[in-house]
Every structure is written in C-alpha cells, then in structure tokens.
Design brief:
106 residues; alpha+beta; OB fold (Dihydrolipoamide Acetyltransferase, E2P); 5 strands; 36% strand; elongated
C-alpha cells in the first residue's frame, strides 16, 4: 500500500513540474509589451525574418518579421525608407513587427 502512495505522489509531482514548465516556456511571448510602437528608419539589411533598421538618430533596431505579412517586406532594399509598427519584445532588445510600410521619397 505504501508503494502505491509513493507512485501517486511521484506522478502528481511530475504533472505539476510539467505544468510549471509549460507556463514558464509561454512567458516570453506573453510578456511582450502590449503598447504599440511606431518609428521611421532606413533599411540596413534584411535576412530571413529579421529586418535591421537605422533611425535618423543613428540607432539600429532589429525587427522580428514573423508576424508581418510577407508582401509588406519582400521587396525592401537597402536604404529604403520605412515605417515600422510593432511592440517591444521581451527584454526590449528588438521589435516584434506587425506592419512595415514603405515611405515614398519626395
């Protein structure tokens, strides 16, 4: 009978640990800022799902393009002027893009 209680306790502990792991893994996406940011800059480079943009005040900002429709960035070239809309990623080291608009040069 004692052996059964130990197995039940181990199973419950394992289930709780697994649940905690799932919660922990989902936190970075959930902790992203809900506040939208928008800025203008020039394309430095684009590779895969990352766009690097330079602002007028010489800041380089990495933009995650995972949630941006591909037709909004597939034709971008170096030095194109763009407006990026998105939210701050967990840790604040990049932008999770939602929209990239090309600005026509005057």
């Amino acid at each position: 009978m004692r052996q059964r209680n130990i197995r039940g306790s181990l199973a419950l502990a394992s289930l709780m640990a697994f649940g905690l792991l799932l919660i922990t893994l989902s936190l970075p996406a959930a902790v992203a800022s809900e506040t939208l940011v928008q800025f203008e800059g020039r394309v430095l480079w684009i590779a895969g799902t990352t766009l690097m943009v330079a602002t007028d005040d010489s800041q380089s900002i990495s933009v995650d393009l995972t949630h941006v429709p591909q037709d909004e960035y597939q034709r971008l070239e170096r030095d194109d002027l763009v407006v990026v809309t998105g939210s701050l990623a967990y840790g604040g080291n990049r932008i999770l893009g939602t929209s990239i608009e090309t600005v026509e040069s005057p």
